[in-house]
Write a structure and sequence with these properties.
Oligomer: heterotrimer
Number of helices of chain B: 1
Largest sheet of chain B: none
Chains: A mainly alpha (218), B mainly alpha (53), C mainly alpha (254)
Shape of chain A: elongated
Order of helices and strands of chain A: HHHHHHHHHH
Largest interface: B-C, 33 and 39 residues
Shape of chain B: rod-shaped
């Protein structure tokens, strides 16, 4: 398991692995927002939590097809499926590797971008917390979507169409935590619900993803 | 004949028109696709029967 | 297909008999004119009754007539997904091809129902709430349901191998159902912060009186029967398409 994690991390971070692309995309989206809605700081600070969440979500979406695509092409996914490690476990590890290389850096970058959008000071803590929790759910749900579309030639667009509706609950609760945090309101309820979604996804989605992978490897 | 729809006539009538058009669309599409597949299947089956006989 | 003969006699007449494509084609072919005719009758009666012969509501005026389309379409939009969920489960557990094909056949019909519900809702909303679209929890969840339909249909269209497509879409339907339900509650939670108690639909506020009730029931039966008719027609098409493909493949082999 550790070896698989190491290998996935190495693949993602090496040149051409697309490691920095998601972060750059996040930056560009956040820069484009003031250009499109105007430089009014009051407006920007109101929409900042939502924009940061949406930007992180879209950036996360970009790298989803890489979770399984490379391994599918070179056949190592077949090896994984027959390995002693259950496929569910392998999926979970690969989703975790995706989170480490995408969700975690995005989370750490979000406060920096928050400055650009005049995010109110009490918001930073909750933005970090909600993204830290929520991006893990995004990675696992995304792994399911990637497993569904792994054998398809033009799967990228379809993957987005399949995964985005599944992201709705996570986005709602996550952005709600960040918004309430920024407005100084109590965040306990949405935070608990977000944590519930993340834990539930982490526990159950690997099974769905592994089932889809088995069908695709048949 | 037409019922008195009052000031909301446009809304009510457009709601009915839109819905009937959409329903008609899916019915028409289903029937057309059904007829097309049936025709093709019949021609292929006829071809096969000729080949067998 | 092969295991049919090994089924014990006592279970011969069970519901699963209809899962045999040949049997299904026979039965559905015989039933189709009746179901279709009844659907047309109920729809015509319900809608004409509703449109021409019901009084205006004292508060909503004549817009109340939209209810005869809006409510049945919304009901079928949800029930079509539930039917797809059930047939997907049957496919995953018992591997009946008809079941998977019925789910595939139902999806576009469900999507159309959802679109009708949204469109009539928007047209109704304009005079009643003063806006075409409000991010009311109910509207929002319906929009999200529509997105799930789109994804499901797109996945069917994208995969060439029919059995792979049936498996993957079934899994998507299961997972999607869970997330659609989660979204429903998430959306309820999300909008409470904006405007309190946005209970904007008629059915919730005031129970409908008899004058509106019976045409509504007729119209709902019409929509249910229409849905059934369309699913039967489309499932038959899918079965024929499958057979066509098999014959073509055999020809190519020969």
């Amino acid at each position: 398991m550790i070896a698989l994690l190491r290998r996935d991390m190495a693949v993602a971070t090496r040149a051409g692995g697309g490691f920095g692309l998601g972060l750059a995309f996040f930056l560009v989206v956040v820069v484009l927002v003031p250009l499109s809605v105007g430089p009014d700081t009051a407006v920007l600070s109101r929409i900042a939590p939502g924009i940061l969440w949406l930007g992180a979500l879209l950036a996360c979406l970009l790298s989803l097809d890489r979770i399984f695509a490379l391994d599918f092409e070179d056949g190592s996914l077949d090896l994984l499926a027959t390995a002693p490690l259950p496929l569910e476990g392998a999926v979970a590890v690969k989703a975790f590797a995706h989170w480490l290389t995408t969700g975690l850096p995005l989370t750490l970058m979000a406060p920096v971008l928050g400055v650009l959008l005049n995010l109110p000071v009490p918001g930073y803590r909750w933005l970090l917390a909600s993204l830290l929790l929520g991006t893990s759910a995004l990675s696992v749900i995304g792994a399911f979507g990637a497993a569904l579309t792994v054998g398809l030639r033009r799967g990228g667009l379809l993957l987005s169409l399949l995964v985005l509706p599944l992201y709705v609950p996570t986005l709602i609760f996550g952005a709600e935590v960040a918004r309430r945090g920024a407005e100084g309101m109590p965040v306990a309820t949405p935070l608990a619900l977000l944590a519930g979604i993340s834990l539930g996804c982490a526990a159950l989605m690997p099974f769905a993803a592994a089932a889809a992978l088995r069908v695709n490897l048949r | 004949m037409m019922p008195e729809l009052g000031k909301y006539a446009v809304e009510v009538i457009s709601a009915y028109v839109v819905s009937v058009a959409l329903l008609g669309g899916i019915v028409w599409a289903s029937l057309r696709e059904g007829a097309r597949v049936r025709r093709e299947l019949r021609s292929v089956e006829a071809r096969r029967d000729r080949a067998d006989g | 297909m092969q295991h049919k003969d090994s089924v014990p006699i006592s279970r011969r007449m069970s519901l699963w008999e209809y899962a045999n494509p040949k049997k299904f084609m026979q039965v559905s072919g015989a039933a189709l004119p009746w179901v279709g005719g009844l659907a047309a009758l109920c729809l015509a009666v319900g809608l004409i009754w509703g449109f021409f012969f019901t009084p205006d509501d004292f508060r909503q005026g004549s817009t109340v007539k939209i209810i005869y389309i809006h409510v049945p379409a919304a009901l079928m939009g949800i029930n079509a997904w539930l039917m797809m969920l059930v047939t997907s489960l049957i496919w995953l557990v018992r591997r009946h091809h008809v079941s998977a094909l019925a789910a595939k056949a139902a999806a576009p019909v469900g999507l159309v129902m959802t679109v009708i519900a949204l469109a009539t809702g928007a047209i109704w909303g304009q005079p009643m709430w003063g806006t075409w679209w409000a991010w009311d929890p109910r509207l929002t969840s319906f929009l999200i349901l529509g997105l799930f339909y789109l994804g499901y249909i797109a996945l069917w269209a994208a995969i060439d191998n029919p059995d792979t497509a049936a498996d993957l879409t079934s899994v998507l339907c299961l997972v999607g159902s869970v997330f659609a339900l989660l979204s429903r509650y998430a959306v309820l939670f999300w909008n409470q912060g904006l405007h309190q108690g946005a209970s904007l639909t008629v059915t919730q506020d005031n129970p409908i009186s008899d004058i509106y009730y019976w045409p509504l029931i007729t119209s709902i039966s019409g929509f249910v029967l229409l849905f059934l008719t369309l699913v039967l027609v489309r499932t038959r098409t899918e079965i024929r398409r499958r057979r066509l493909q098999a014959l073509l493949n055999r020809e190519r082999m020969a």
